Structure of SDR family oxidoreductase:
Amino acid sequence: MGMLDGKVAVVTGSGGGIGREIALHMAQAGAKVIINDIGASLTGEGASATPAQQTKQIIEQRGGRAEINTDSVSSWESAGKIVQSALDHFGRIDIVVNNAGILRDQIFHRMTPEEWDAVIDVHLNGSFYVSRHAATHFRKQEGGSYVHITSTSGLIGNFGQANYSAAKLGICALSKSIALDMKRYNVRSNCLAPFAWSRMTSSIPAETPEQKARVEKIMRMGPEKNAPLAVFLASDAAKDVTGQIFGPRMNELFLFSQNRPIRGIHAAEGWTPESIAEHALPALKSFFVPMERSGEVFSWDPL
């Protein structure tokens, strides 16, 4: 008996990397899998069914069941076809893994509206579209699980990724809203912030000695290290886990904090700009969140 026996999973962007490993592990755990991938480049150009076919071949060689869908997550209509493919092939849908993604990295003052829209459309809009189509079926059957792939670029910060960071942090808010709205239907929604060397991290600069050292650390973390947590979150063993953000890093597992007040001060007479500068700023400044990137927060070697 596998942890996902009898369940049907849709894994977007599962033609390679982290998505492929999640699809493989879910199939190994007993799920029937819809492998969704348009086969585009890292920046979203082109299309090919080959990556999805390769994932399907591996699953079937290992005795699992899978079907391919090559529709894009980035429009409402095509996202509906992704969910419908699960119903057409396997008669139901129990799990959605929102993993599909592209990159259009650019320093903020040079970022174009096209670079912004392209990334938001796939990551944030795509997660909403696929999740919303699945929600109709989750509600009817009173059960289902979402696993959304976020990133420390959004949770903590990174250079040259305003579009990606905004989308990935937005996905966390989307997940929390789904968890709150659909709890009454036994539907769970969680986020996973992966650490791995994959196509999505291959664009990290490696020019300075510090950058090269950071990339070398990431390259030691294979995409397969993220799959066990995704399988668990999708399973009935996680029936009490919803609205959370997790991060697997090699053999470490992290639970991320979510925004809460960290310091408060009160003035009986109210505040003026001057009193804020004189009294509030000194009281609050030592609690400011540092200007750090993910690599600076996770500065130790992965265990």
About this structure: The chain has ten helices and eight strands. The first helix runs from residue 17 to 28.
